Amino acid sequence: MASAGTTMKSRGHIRCAIKPLLLVAFTSLTLPAHAQSESAAPPAPAVTVALIKERSFQESETFSGRIEAIESVNLIARVQGYLEARHFEEGSFVEKGDLLYELDQDIYRNTLTQAQAALQVAQANETLAQQKFNRQEELTKRDVQSRALLEESQANLAVSQANVAAAQSKVEAAEINLAYTKITAPITGLIGRSVVSTGDLISPQSGPMATIVQSDPIYASFPVPQRSMIDFRKRGARNEDVFVSLTLADGSTYEHHGKISFTDVSAAASSDAIIVRATVPNPDNMLINNGLVDVNIVANEDTSKLALPLQALLLDQQGAYVLVVDEDNVVKAARIEVGEQRGGYLVVQSGLDAGAKVIVEGIQKARPGSKVAPSILNEAN
Question: 54 with 307: CB under 8 angstroms?
Fold first, then answer.
């Protein structure tokens, strides 16, 4: 019995000794696993955010336009004759009064000579008639002859005076026709291609010989939808409140600005658009008559609007949204409505308030509901 009791006590001591060992072993197994799970947790992904704020923009709107010369003159001969000379280079700049063409003058010079001779004859007859009238008048005063003879001489004098006037008129007409054989520039501008050559028989029915366009300044005409015009006037804007910038066919911006100089008083029935015209400097003749341009109407003063960087915008089937980082650095999706683009920014119409942080870089690493490590985008403005 004593032996059995001793054995039982020994087993009890063994159990008591094993329990702490098991606890230690369990602890040694569990603690490293927990520590390992903590060290294996991935860090929050780094993203770059931009602050939503009001930004200064120049209000602008773009329309398709066409360049138009302020003056465009077709050169048409006023008399008939053979073209003797051309005195200009096609495409060159000409001044008002410059000699451009000369027609054969022989026939018109001869006509003038004949008219001048006829005038001299008429003047001589007038002188003779005047002398006869003076004598008849003196004799009538002395009652030497009848008054009928005086009246006859007076009538002859009137006829001779009329003949002088008619002859003088023919001289002037001949002088005008002779002058018309020299065709000069009626305006200052660029002259185009000559459609006639030396030796051609030219007449008023021949049509334009060449065209001169006034190139500086020049017009840019463009149709403005009535909706845009109404909005412009509702805002109380005036033509003086905007300037005109042109985009050329190669995509470059024309260096000179223009001002609106004319707005039509009625809309086109076919398009409901109103023709507006701007006057633009053209000292280097960069703008060509009838050329196409984009006309940008730009406000003189800036306006402030809530805007977000273009790269923050995301699109899906439901529309536009952005990823926003809240105060706890948790990502949330925000549905937004945006307006026009201004440079690298989009005007925010709804869905965001000033101060919101939207992700612009690292978007692919961010998920709604997850945490991120944001840094603020360094912006010049």
Answer: yes
Which distant-in-sequence residues (6+ apart) come within 8 Å of 312 by Cβ?
50, 322, 323, 358, 359, 360, 363
pLDDT for the residue 28? 45
Show Cβ contacts of residue 59 under 8 Å, excluding neighbours closer than 6 positions. 298, 299, 303
pLDDT at 242: 80
Most confident of 10-19, 41-50, 137-146, 225-234: 41-50
Which of 233, 116, 110, 101 has the alpha carbon at shortest distance from 168? Answer: 116
Domains of the chain by residue range: 1-39, 47-57+305-376, 61-70+213-301, 74-100+187-210, 105-180
pLDDT (0 to 100) of residue 39: 54
Which architecture characterizes domain 47-57+305-376 according to CATH? Beta Barrel (2.40)
**Token representation of residue 296:** 């940008």
Residue owning tokens 């925000």: 334
**Among the listed residues 225, 308, 223, the one whose alpha carbon sits nearest the alpha carbon of residue 262:** 223
Distance CA 264, CA 221 (A): 11
* pLDDT, averaged across the chain: 84
Kindly report the pTM of this predicted structure.
Answer: 0.59
Closest-CA residue to 52 (of 308, 240, 332): 308
Nearest Cα to 161, choosing from 114, 116, 113, 119? 119
Distance CA 24, CA 29 (A): 9
Mean pLDDT (whole number) for 210-215: 92
Q: Which structure tokens are listed for 5?
A: 């009791």
Distance between CA atoms of 303 and 324, rounded to whole angstroms?
26
- Total Cβ atoms within 10 A of residue 131: 12
Give the domain 61-70+213-301 fold: Elongation Factor Tu (Ef-tu); domain 3 (2.40.30)
How far is residue 62's CA from residue 64's CA, in Å, rounded to a whole number? 7
CATH class of 105-180: mainly alpha
The stretch 230-236 carries a mean pLDDT of 69
Residue 320's closest CA among 345, 302, 303, 338?
338
The answer to whether residues 306 and 54 touch, using CB atoms and an 8 Å cutoff, is yes
pLDDT band at 27 (very low <50, low <70, confident <90, very high): very low
